[in-house]
Amino acid sequence: MRIGTTLAACGLAALSLGACAAPTPPGQLIADPYENVNRVMHGFNVAADRFVLRPAAQVYDVATPTLFQHMLGNFVEHVRLPLIFINNVLQADVDGALETAGRFGVNTLVGAGGLLDPATEFGLPFEDNGFGVTLAEWGAEEGVFVVLPVLGPATSRDAFGRIGNIAMNPLTYVTFGGGTGQIAAAVGEFVGPVIILRDQNFEIIDSVLYDSEDSYVATRTGYVLSRRNRIADGVVDVEALPDVFAE
């Protein structure tokens, strides 16, 4: 009941975005009526990256053997599969749901609980999905650009999508071990994946945040283009995206 109520609220809110979203100014990629506040949040996030996330990713890269990094990356993808499966079902993607369920079963049973990835060799590669994509499939408008503290850039639709992802993710409801177990689940669901993602994309994130003339504009452009690409085609082709530093 808790999940259903949350999803219903997210869905109704996101579906109403088209009526309340500000129009996109001529020549601009997306409407950004909250730019002043967004820039403040962006500055906070850059500082958090500089002093916390970036050093943590560097320590992780140096202290963790390459094999373990590969296994941890596999596990982070593995624990997302139940969430991906739910979104496949919500999108009426029968093939995607079956492939996701098959991948989860194979890697759980013969992939050391998801640390290894034999499923890819069996023709069941990892295909990401989330509630933001589901809302787009349901007809929710993209909305306006927003920057969330810590969580980073988003569209209005994706912001509601992230709430839906949290509501649908089984790890959100892990309560084993009392408070300690809840903290461990939160680390496994949020902190670990973010550090791993930062490490895997170290150079490009550094380029956007620290080498671009206006890191806010570069972040906004790169995020919006990649999300539109993902929702339209299901694949983000980074090499095919326009130069985000040219705006």
UniProtKB/TrEMBL annotation:
The keyword Zinc does not apply. GO terms for biological process: intermembrane phospholipid transfer. GO terms for cellular component: membrane. InterPro entries: MlaA. Keywords: Lipoprotein, Signal. Residues 1-21 form the signal peptide. It holds the Pfam family MlaA. Belongs to the MlaA family. This is Phospholipid-binding lipoprotein MlaA.
